[in-house]
Amino acid sequence: MPSSAPQAEPVKVIANTNAPAGGSYRWTILALLFCATTINYIDRNTISFFMVDDGFRHDMLGLDRAVTWNPDYQKEFLDVMGKVDAFFKGAYAIGFLVMGTLIDRLGVRKGYSLSILVWALASVSHAFISTVGQLKIARMMLGLGESGNFPSAVKTVAEWFPKKERALASGIFNAGSNLGIISVAFAVPTLLAILGWQYTFLVTASLGFVLLICWRIFYKKPEEHKGITESELAYIRADNEQVFDRKLGWKEILPYRQTWAVGAGKVFTDMIWYFYLTLLPSYFMTAGKFKLDLKNIGWPFMVIYIVSDLGSIAFGWLSSTMIKRGYSANVARKTAMLACALCVLPILLVIQTDSIVLATCLIALAAAAHQGWSANVYTLATDMFPKQAIASVIGFAGFLGAMGSMLLSYNYGLLVKSSLGYGSLFIIAASAYLTALLLVHLLAPKLKPVDFNIER
Fold first, then answer.
1. d(CA 185, CA 178)
2. What is the pLDDT of residues 359-376, one digit of tens each?
3. Whose CA is closest to 85, among 271, 335, 307, 350?
4. How far is 292 from 280, CA to CA, in rounded Å?
5. 243 has which bridge partners?
6. Burial (CB count within 10 angstroms: exposed 0-12, middle 13-18, buried 19+), residue 84
7. CA-CA distance, 368 to 364, in Å (whole number)?
8. Confidence of residue 10 (pLDDT cuts 50, 70, 90)
9. CA–CA distance, 205 with 253 (Å, rounded to integer)
10. 159-181 b/e with 16+ CB inside 10 Å = b?
11. Per residue in 363-375, is it b (16+ CB within 10 Å) or e — as a string?
């Protein structure tokens, strides 16, 4: 497609490629991103445990709490909550489009601050709902706010880390999502028993406001930050990446196959992660094989999400290490992604086993592979696009991923009611990653960086 306007000459950053790190403030920034992602997942995932709380289920279906819960109510409730989750995913998708562009235009400090404020206020609003309609609105606002997390985090990593460290850095901040889920699995059942679901929402929502204050205090661009040394700044800039003196928005990024390659890495796989987040508590507690309850459901989630934390870091480390050893980004990223895709395949055996231990281990392996996959997909954007466009690219990819997730979640009830039951979801999970990798390779066979100075 032809360019609509003359392209500005890039400003080259000249730095010593052998400069020592000379400081470690970038890791402090990464720790802040890790905490932010943890809180992001606490706020979004709290509701998945409410789905097995009698008080919440009765309130959402408009039933008297004295009414005995039965399988028919459970199927109706699952169908209702699947549609509520679709509202969250739809708003999350739209939010990616809005937040990605906004963060590129405002900068990550202001843009992410706005995102955190919206999601913190939305989290608080959950404590005051009394109908499914109000819950849909609250989840939509939460989706809009939370959509800013990953575009902000990936752009921050691009600003603060050289290419050879970015997959590892992405794996580390992405691991915060698993800590958030583990925290929810252990804390929320206790809070529910003591406080009830409304006050539990207030407790978890308060973390967002703490995060907002910390972000405003600690985050600035590397060149503006007093905590960074000159040698560390030179190390961060060692890749001599193009820096444009203009904004790069939707008009500039959509014509490129590289944009759609990053999107392909998300559209088929994000839905699988949200299936784990949304339905695993119900699967473990209502599937005929397992029948766990709130008293003993914590340990499977601890195993699953601790292992997935390790996978996020390990597969990020794998591609970063391959690049340090001289492999191209193309070989390193796709090798790591292929390893992740193959590690998901054994999840098909979950359908066959009656062992909660084996099922937990198989899901843990798949979840670890997903997180490693995500760490490398996020890094694809930093491999192929200049920093000014990264949040927009991740926003667009996140939009596609959320739309795929919305489609699947809207049909949770239909799929679970089918003859295969939950098995249909595990079959989709097993095939999603190899399909996505094939599309990524077809769209970006060499992960060639986009040059916005060349007319198309």
1. 10
2. 999 999 999 999 999 989
3. 271
4. 11
5. 11
6. buried
7. 6
8. very low
9. 35
10. bbbbbbbbbbbbbbbbbbbbbbb
11. bbbbbbbbbbbbb
Amino acid at 27: W
Q: Is residue 25 within 8 Å of 227, Cβ to Cβ?
A: yes
pLDDT attached to residue 22: 54
User: Encoding tokens for residue 45?
Assistant: 């995932």
CA distance 151 to 148: 6
Tell me the residue type at 151.
P
Write the pLDDT tens digit of every residue in 377-403: 988 988 898 877 888 888 888 889 888
239's tokens: 């890749």
What mean pLDDT do residues 99-119 have?
Answer: 90
Question: What are the residues facing 101 on neighbouring strands?
Answer: none
Q: What is the pLDDT of residues 57-91, one digit of tens each?
A: 777 777 777 677 666 777 777 778 877 887 888 88
Q: Which two tokens stand for residue 260?
A: 């759609």
Is 4 a residue whose pLDDT tops 60? Answer: no
What is the full DSSP assignment across 218-256?
A: H---GGG-TT--HHHHHHHTTT--EE-SS---HHHHTT-
Mean pLDDT of the chain: 83
Condensed to tens digits (0 to 9), the pLDDT of residues 262-288 reads 999 999 999 898 888 777 877 887 776
d(Cα 344, Cα 437) in Å, to the nearest integer?
Answer: 13
Distance CA 298, CA 306 (A): 12
Q: What stretch of H or E contains 11?
A: strand 11-12
Write out the H or E segment, with its range, that includes residue 136.
Answer: helix 132-146
Structure tokens, 259: 């944009």
- Using only C-alpha atoms, what is the Rg of the chain? 22
* Number of neighbours of residue 336 by Cβ within 10 angstroms: 26
- CA 56 from centroid of its chain's CA atoms: 26
The pTM of this model reads 0.74
In a 13 Å sphere around the CA of 140, the CA atoms on its Cβ side amount to: 10
Instruction: Please give the share of the chain, as a percent, with pLDDT higher than 70.
Output: 89
Length of the chain: 456
- Secondary structure element (H or E) that encloses residue 242, with its range: strand 242-243
